[in-house]
Amino acid sequence: MITKEQVNSFIEKIPPEPKVLNETFALLRIGELLKAAKVAENDLALKAYLKNIVNKPIYGFKNEVSDISQIFGILGVSLSQQNVYNYMISLLSPKKWTLFKLNSHLFYELQANLSKKWQIILEHLNIENKEIYAAVSLLPASIIVTEALFNQKIDDVNLLRSTKALDYNTILVRLCGIDLFDICEQIAKKWEMDENIYKIVQAASGVKPSDDEKINMLAKWMHLLLFYELSNPHFIEAGLNDFVDFQIDYISDIYDEFSSLMEIE
Questions:
Q1: pLDDT tens digits, one per residue of 30-49
Q2: Which of 111, 163, 235, 243: CA 20 to 30 A from 93?
Q3: pLDDT score for 52
């Protein structure tokens, strides 16, 4: 059993928002893209990350985009803020993955895909709330934390996987007493994100629906998006398709609409 203290100890290692990120966020929250870009220029790692993300094929740019002000201008306020959160999540990423067959390239691709498709979903639903855009950035964080925690009990994890065919979320509950979505909530609280963000992510588990109709509907879209993206052959090979149990009954009322939006045949 991985103790609560061990879990909390790892969560506490999550980098807090340094000065540059705090200033960048403050300016993005009031829509000052140019000023935010000027501040972000001072963080070379952030600049490199944003350049890497925005030039992923999913964004569809023919020519490389490298200037931060141009990147923020292309992304807009909501996506710029979301991708700065993604950057903070990436700071947790291990140099070498053990449980999941991932590397930095694949992990950044996952972040980019989830972010872009979550944007498509929110635009489809006519939702402009910047904080809600940020909600999807927490999902990859649970993958990183699960990797770190399971590495402490890798033999137990492999035994449970081989003998009982349990998904990783169920194993996490058995070994740690928390699930993937609890981890997202802890990170959201540490970064003082809006309460509705972690309520959406918690409900996206598919087994902890919210009483709030709007939160629950967004959570259904997020639940579907997570499984749609993790069904990518690269992520199946990485072992991410066994991350959590798909709750088909939970999302049945929006499945056709989601399939049409994502152009699933």
A1: 889 999 999 999 888 888 98
A2: 163
A3: 87
As given in the structure block, the two tokens for residue 184 are 């997202």
Q: Please report, to the nearest 10 degrees, the dihedral formed by the alpha carbons of residues 205, 184, 146, 114 taken in order.
A: 70
User: Where would I find the beta strands (DSSP E) of 167-206?
Assistant: none
On the 0-12 / 13-18 / 19+ scale of CB atoms within 10 A, 217 is middle
DSSP code of 177? S
Contacts of 11 (CB under 8 A, 6+ apart): 145, 183, 186, 187, 190
Structure tokens at 222: 């997020």
The pLDDT value given to residue 7: 76
pLDDT, tens digit, 9 for 90 and up, residues 226-265: 999 998 999 999 989 888 788 999 999 999 999 999 886 4
155-182 pLDDT tens trace: 888 888 887 778 888 888 888 888 889 9
The three-class DSSP label of residue 167 is coil
Of 18, 16, 10, 22, the residue nearest 183 (C-alpha): 10
Residue 5 has pLDDT above 70, yes or no: yes
Q: What six digits make up the tokens of 56?
A: 């992923």
- Non-local CB neighbours of 199 within 8 Å, separated by 6+ positions: 210, 212, 215
Q: Of the candidates 158, 147, 2, which has an alpha carbon nearest to the alpha carbon of residue 89?
A: 147
The dihedral sign for the CA sequence 42, 48, 50, 55? positive
Q: For the beta carbon of residue 20, count every other beta carbon within 10 angstroms.
A: 16
Determine the longest span between alpha carbons in the chain, in angstroms: 55
HSE at residue 228, side-chain half, CA atoms within 13 A, is 21
List Cα–Cα distances, 199 to 155, 180, 186, 262, in angstroms.
33, 13, 11, 24
